[in-house]
């Protein structure tokens, strides 16, 4: 059930639908809305609840999460993203009682620290953990998390500025069997070591998002893609140390790649597409905006070599113009986004 009608309606629903298993109370406004007392009613009324979404409920604090943890031990899915009052105390109550928890969203909960990750190591069945924008967690927390969580399939650490290679290496080794999506965007302390560690042990990984990891170099891509060839989505935008050599290794060794984002990798030129071969790649989406060294000739090479291509974004590329793009034989349905217009072929 999705509930947007307020406390009075919540009381009526609680009286009538006590067997509810999924409840969405998320908000889209800055208004505090739901309070801890409302969560206490939820905890008392819906003993079978397995899925709870309180995303962006800014009136919720540790008191509300404590009530959830005490009463809803069967909870498997919880989203508290944007609940800015939540601290380690609330997370610890959830982790200590909801041992069957599989999915947890904590994005933008900036008061939580490494202590929350230590507590979550109790959740042995945790599969999906989103910590985007949790700026007070770091390597120590990931090391503690890795001591108990070995079933993670999705880990999102975007904008966690204190996370570095040591923490990433620890958690990817612990979750090597199941991890298929790793998000490290805008983690300025993550470099080659963490990425190479993921390549060495995570054979199920198909999505790797590294945008803004400015320490990343060609060395990491070379080491990663000589071991791991199953990636379908690679995003390395704003990784400004990458050169043509790194991207050539990607194309040469990863035929399953479908999405590549290299926006604002300023050192790239047309040479990065040299290893593309017709019939040997699955590229569907390519983003090269801000790569001023790439010209229309490079785009032509992509169009000729990628039979599944459906989308190219090429904004702010000074050597790519509408006049040159329209002369390239793209497949029907391919969309090309330029500075001032979008072309559909």
TrEMBL record:
SMART domains: LRR_CC
InterPro entries: FBXL15_LRR (IPR057207), Leu-rich_rpt (IPR001611), Leu-rich_rpt_Cys-con_subtyp (IPR006553), LRR_dom_sf (IPR032675)
Organism domain of life: Eukaryota
Domain F-box/LRR-repeat protein 15-like leucin rich repeat: 3-94, 148-294
PANTHER family for this protein: F-BOX_LRR-REPEAT PROTEIN 3, PARTNER OF PAIRED, ISOFORM B-RELATED
Protein name: F-box/LRR-repeat protein 15-like leucin rich repeat domain-containing protein
